[in-house]
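Field guide to reading this record: the first block holds the primary sequence, the second block holds the structure written as discrete tokens, and the final block holds curator observations. Each block starts with its own label. This record concerns Copper chaperone PCu(A)C, catalogued under organism Mycolicibacterium obuense.

BLOCK 1 — SEQUENCE
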Amino acid sequence: MPRFLSIVVALLITLLTGCGGSAPDESTMASHVAVSDQWASASDDGMAAVFGVFTNTGDRDATVVAGDSPAAASVELHEVVRGGGGAGVMQPKDGGFIVPAGGRHELSPGADHLMLMQLKEPLRPGADVTVTVRFADGSSLPVTAQVRDFPGGQEPYQPGTHGRG
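BLOCK 2 — STRUCTURE
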């Protein structure tokens, strides 16, 4: 019986100490980035934007390269560029959003933002929407944003231009 007991104790210790468990990896981009002041634009259908401020406490740049959300068919990283007449045009952003080491990167109306594409249901003011942003190193960060009424900048969308204006 003592041998059986020692095996059970060894198994319990292994389970409780998390051998092979999921301790946070402090070397990932996501482990050093936080998001604040996040919010999303209300929309009945189509697209909605997500804004906020990424802050990087790490010693290397962190690059947001993609995202996904249960609220939309896809999430795109967008920028707004000024055309010949000064009007803003929204387009996918090549290379992602770089959050500099020890710095910040703001997502704001009329500039860089996350775009929820092909909404699965309306986003109503006061509700929350979750987006998971993905970094160049494969790590990810869940972000919850409150939905707010916002008419938007009404920039036309130029899909597939990827930085060429």
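BLOCK 3 — OBSERVATIONS
The radius of gyration is 21 Å.
The CA atoms of residues 77 and 114 lie 5 Å apart.
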